[in-house]
Amino acid sequence: MTGQYALKVEGVNEQIQVGLRQRQRKKTAFIYRNNQDLHNIGYLHRDVKPGNYTIGRAELNELRKVYILDFGMCRKFTNEQGVIRKPRQAAGFRGTVRYAPISCHLQRELCRYTRFYMIFNLQQKRVRQPQFINELFPPPCPREFQEVLTYTDSLKYYDAPNYQHIYGIMRRALQSSNAQEFPYDWEMGGPTAYVLA
Predict the structure, then answer these.
(1) DSSP class per residue in 89-147
(2) CATH classification at residue 103
(3) What does the record give as EC number (predicted)?
(4) Is there a domain that residue 128 lies in?
(5) Rounded distance, CA 101 to CA 99, Å?
(6) What is the pLDDT of residue 7?
(7) Which domain, by its residues, includes 32?
(8) DSSP label of 183
(9) How many domains does the chain have?
(10) What is the Cα–Cα distance from 36 to 25, expressed in whole angstroms?
(11) Residue 14 in contact with residue 168, Cβ under 8 Å?
(12) How far apart are CA 36 and CA 26, in angstroms?
């Protein structure tokens, strides 16, 4: 992979946007605190993708609010007492093929940490074996991407991700790349501001 890489970490609600620019095409993946909040009440979204997020309305001064959409594939992963359910032997595929984590393609039960793979926009056609994931992050891609992946790979089904640790890694990537946090892509003055005009 060659091209320019940019990382933006949004300070509002600890929302993180990781932008990857390659050949003047921008692929953007989002991890939002919205998912953490959903996890905190015992649900997995199971269809995390850019199309299931939207920004707030400009006329309501909500351009820095991001909303999660489409809860149709959500699944409660805890019982009534808040205890995590045992993983099923085989879980049918749920989600969008392009954005689904590898474990979903392997029909394994999804858990909270598998959704962090969304950062990297893994595509089944490009990544067929988990051991090849490291090849997705050649220089000049921020080394922190690999650090997040290594951390999430260390988690087991019942483990709760340390969201603050992940946000900290991403903030460090922003700082080490000397990237400007503002304006965001969708704000006036941002790289794609013409979309809103």
Answers:
(1) SS----S-TTT--HHHHTTPPP-GGGGGGGGGT--TTT--SGGGGGGG--TTS-HHHHH
(2) 1.10.510.10
(3) 2.7.11.1
(4) yes
(5) 7
(6) 35
(7) 15-177
(8) S
(9) 1
(10) 29
(11) no
(12) 25
pLDDT per position as a tens digit, 53-104: 888 888 998 888 888 889 999 999 999 999 999 999 999 898 888 888 878 8
Whether 184 maps to a domain, the answer reads no
Q: What is the token pair recorded at 1?
A: 């992979």
Give the residue, 166 or 7, on which the prediction is more confident.
Answer: 166
Cβ atoms of 130 and 108 closer than 8 Å = no
Sign of the Cα pseudo-torsion (58, 63, 65, 70, in order):
positive
Exposed/middle/buried for residue 118 (C-beta within 10 Å: 0-12, 13-18, 19+): buried
Q: Is residue 7 in some structural domain?
A: no
CA distance 150 to 144: 10
Exactly one of 37, 47, 159, 185 is catalytic; name it. Answer: 47
Q: Mean of the pLDDT values across residues 140-144?
A: 75
d(CA 183, CA 17): 12
* Residue 47 a catalytic site member: yes
Res. 13 pLDDT band, cuts 50 70 90: very low
In a domain, 131, yes or no: yes
